[in-house]
Write a structure and sequence with these properties.
Elements: E1 13-18, E2 24-29, E3 33-40, E4 45-52, H1 53-62, H2 64-74
Antiparallel strand pairs: 1-2, 3-4
Helix pairs in contact: 1-2
Length: 78
């Protein structure tokens, strides 16, 4: 399974390591993902999601139902 956030769609970015002599080599900026279980009271069930920590902070602020609704509106979650 790829390292992609299931709610925001965030994935790894590509950039350069830059040395003091300005030599550039390719590198990857990975996403900070965590596996987390959430209880959805509307559906009366638990779901396990692989989400970024930024999405986790958004869920803590707005609630899982609101974040899932917004992700469905954006076309990330079916």
């Amino acid at each position: 399974m790829s390292r992609v956030c299931e709610l925001t769609g965030k994935r790894a970015m590509v950039g350069n390591n830059v040395s003091h002599a300005m030599n550039k080599t390719k590198r990857k900026f990975s996403v900070n993902l965590v596996k987390k279980r959430f209880y959805i009271p509307e559906e009366d069930r638990w779901v396990t999601l692989k989400i970024s920590t930024a999405a986790l902070k958004t869920i803590n602020k707005n609630g899982i139902a609101a974040v899932l609704k917004q992700a469905k509106a954006n076309g990330i979650v079916k």
